[in-house]
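Project standup — Tuesday

K.O.: blocked on the structure for the chain from last sprint. Re-posting the sequence here as requested.
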Amino acid sequence: MTSLALGPAWLDPEHLIQTFGLIGILLVVFAESGLLIGFFLPGDSLLFTTGLLVASGRYLHHPLWLVCLLIVIAAVVGDQVGYLCGRKAGPALFRRPNSRLFKQENAARAHAFFAKHGPKSLVMARFVPVVRTFTPIVAGVSAMAYRPFVIFNLLGGLLWGAGVTLLGASLGEVAFVHENIEAMLIGIVLLSVLPIAVELLRARRGAGRAPSASPAAGGQPEAPPADPGQGQPV
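H.V.: unblocked you, prediction finished:
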């Protein structure tokens, strides 16, 4: 296998797996699923590479079913922690100043995603980088009922954690994948960010078509955005 030529070397999925093994994979999945500091970690490409390496017996020598089970548990527990942090921190989380590890636009993007798709966003966001990190936190801030959160959290963790890993294991037996692994991983990264690009494009087009209302023209002034912490329970 060749290294993925994107980002710093220590974020390369194969390098992470070779250095930290299964424990490193589980820590990355946990952090990216619900901790604010985990939004930059390689989720999809890491799981795909994990499945591929398990199938080939390189670096990882655990049964595939056990690896998938542990990944799903790490993903579900990560979202649980994110939800509890959101419930505890509340709106103060969205008033934090920007820093190297926290950007207001990331939190706002996840809040808009959650507001648009409701509880099912917990499943859909699993396949969208950055958004998957902030969505469980937004669910907690919005006081989403705990029972449906747990149900959709389990479903999302299963589909994403086990699904992407099994996909890597299945395709890992294909010779073409082995010969073009770097291109495959780059393709996964591009597919992962595609939903974000589509949403940004739609938002820009919508903003360009929306007429600007001003008091001088007889229109009503635009209402200030609602506080994410004042969302109604789902």
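K.O.: great, moving the ticket to review. Residues 1-6, 212-226, 228-234 have pLDDT under 50 and may be disordered. Residues 181-209 form the longest helix (29 residues).
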